[in-house]
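From the pipeline queue, job 12 of 40. The input is one protein chain; the requested action is below.

Action: predict structure.
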Amino acid sequence: MTALRILVVEDNAVIGMLLARMLKSMGHDVCAVETSEEDAVAAAMRCSPDLMIVDVILRHGSGIAAVEKVLQTRHVPHIFMSGAPVQPGRRGCVVLQKPFGEADIATAIERAVEASAEA
């Protein structure tokens, strides 16, 4: 798989750091790790990611709302992650259930990129 520029949105600092480290070890570039809806939207505009990996529930705002705001200005493939069951809101939406390992994230990235290409 081609290296991607990835924006991580996760309000748990440890999980965000571990996910960024995992993605880097897989050969991807993590352009930012943000913790709130507002910061996620600003980072997406600033760093133009190839992919967003977003926690559904944030302490400050909503990961889903952040993605919706970004999608109003540009299309970005995205993965929602959650510790609770989540029903995808739209066709082709990729949801990654926590906890997950490297193989799970690799599969989710592949699915999100493929779904984006079909859209």
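Job complete. The radius of gyration is 13 Å.
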